């Protein structure tokens, strides 16, 4: 299937155009007077990170009443069973459409089949699932593997020639970003002298990153670790606290490469405590709303819709930090 990689603006424009166009058809979202609201159930992962907060805000802004939606929001506290139960609740309530940011990739076949049997279209945003793509209408998000490759290639360029001991803070076990960022990073450092001496999940949270990094520091000492690869900024920020508590200097004694580029991560980058960040754009709300509207209006949609990412050195972060949307 064709993956359409579009710069955010172009894709936004295209979808916004169609959304406006569809509003005039008077049978879906859009304030074309008299239309009742389109009811959308949104099953969010939880509130595990700064990225997630920005994503939730973007989704709530896009699925607003002004835009013709009634949003039923559920945050599953990073619990896959609770998230599936929330989707079942949406089905029993007979919503018009369901949007899911799936915590983990597996275990979705049954409930997606139930939504399909109930005639309720599903749009995935952010993370992906291993279920057949016949079981959902469309997905919009970021290329996690590419984010991992970009981070790995940076590490290879900066440390690949000398023996480098690396520890990894993995994202939520079983989640698409954790799986794909690990795979991409390993591709990026292939053939270099970077050695992964330990790797453990911090569940994408600051506390998780701090606790796991404390364990790594007890095991190897500040001098026994040269590089930290964190699958997201929140875990990197927790690790920074642990490194400083152990008397180390983050960004110096232990270099740090991370993913997300949320504000606090970018501030740590500007402050020299992180060395490189690969962005993962959380502002998916408008694209997701455009896809829901398109699907409900029977318009063709791409199965996969990628938003563009970028990356930042400390110097680049200093230039942009005050003008970023999140
Ligand atoms: C990535 C997203 C991840 C972020 C984390 O698109 O699913 O989940 O990288 C968030 O910060 O918790
Ligand atoms: Zn419409």
Describe it for me?
The protein contains eleven helices and 13 strands. By secondary structure, the chain is α/β, with parallel strands linked by helices. It has two domains: 4-141 and 282-309, Rossmann fold, CATH 3.40.50; 144-279, Rossmann fold (3-Layer(aba) Sandwich). The strands form two sheets. The chain has a seven-stranded parallel β-sheet, with helices on both faces. The longest helix is centred in the N-terminal third of the chain and has 18 residues, at 8-25. The chain is elongated, with a radius of gyration of 21 Å. The two termini are 32 Å apart. Bound molecules: beta-D-galactofuranose and zinc ion. Residues 48-49, 51-52, 126-127, 142, 177, 204, 232, 234, 259-260, 280 line the site of beta-D-galactofuranose.
Features:
6-stranded mixed beta sheet; alpha/beta; 2 domains; binds zinc ion; single chain; Rossmann fold; 326 residues; 42% helix; 7-stranded parallel beta sheet; binds beta-D-galactofuranose; 11 helices
- The averaged pLDDT comes out at 92
Bound ligands = beta-D-galactofuranose, zinc ion
Tell me the β content: 15-25%
Principal-axis shape:
elongated
Chart the SSEs and their pairings.
Layout: E1 4-5, H1 8-25, E2 38-44, H2 50-62, E3 69-75, H3 80-92, E4 97-100, H4 109-117, E5 122-125, E6 138-141, H5 144-159, E7 164-170, H6 176-188, E8 194-201, H7 206-220, E9 227-230, H8 233-245, E10 255-260, H9 263-270, E11 276-279, H10 285-296, E12 304-306, E13 311-313, H11 314-320
Parallel strand pairs: 1-12, 2-3, 2-4, 4-5, 5-6, 6-12, 7-8, 7-9, 9-10, 10-11
Antiparallel strand pairs: 11-13
């Amino acid at each position: 299937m064709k993956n359409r990689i579009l710069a955010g603006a172009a894709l936004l424009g295209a979808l916004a155009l169609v959304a406006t166009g569809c509003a005039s058809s008077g049978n879906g979202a859009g304030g074309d007077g008299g239309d009742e609201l389109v009811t959308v159930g949104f099953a969010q992962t939880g509130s595990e990170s700064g990225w997630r907060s920005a994503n939730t805000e973007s989704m709530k802004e896009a699925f607003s009443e002004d835009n013709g939606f009634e949003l039923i929001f559920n945050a599953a506290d990073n619990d896959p069973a609770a998230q599936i139960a929330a989707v079942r609740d949406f089905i029993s309530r007979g919503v018009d459409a369901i949007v899911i940011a799936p915590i983990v990739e597996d275990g979705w076949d049954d409930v997606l089949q139930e939504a399909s049997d109930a005639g309720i279209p599903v749009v995935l945003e952010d993370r992906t699932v291993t279920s057949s793509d016949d079981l959902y209408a469309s997905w919009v998000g970021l290329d996690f593997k590419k984010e991992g490759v970009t981070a790995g290639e940076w590490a290879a360029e900066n440390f690949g020639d000398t023996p480098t001991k690396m520890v990894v803070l993995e994202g939520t076990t079983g989640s698409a970003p954790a799986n794909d960022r690990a795979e991409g990073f390993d591709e990026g450092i292939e053939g270099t002298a970077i050695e992964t001496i330990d790797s453990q999940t911090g569940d994408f949270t600051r506390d998780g990153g701090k606790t796991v990094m404390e364990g790594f520091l007890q095991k190897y000492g500040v001098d026994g670790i040269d590089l930290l690869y964190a699958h997201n900024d929140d875990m990197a920020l927790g690790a920074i606290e642990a490194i400083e508590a152990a008397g180390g200097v983050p960004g110096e004694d232990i270099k740090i490469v991370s993913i997300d580029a949320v504000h606090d991560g970018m501030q740590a980058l500007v402050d020299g405590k992180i060395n490189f960040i690969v962005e993962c754009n959380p502002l998916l709300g408008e694209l997701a709303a455009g896809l829901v509207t398109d699907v409900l209006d029977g318009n063709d949609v791409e199965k996969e819709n990628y938003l563009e990412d970028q990356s930042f050195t400390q110097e680049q972060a200093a230039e942009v930090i005050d003008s970023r949307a999140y």
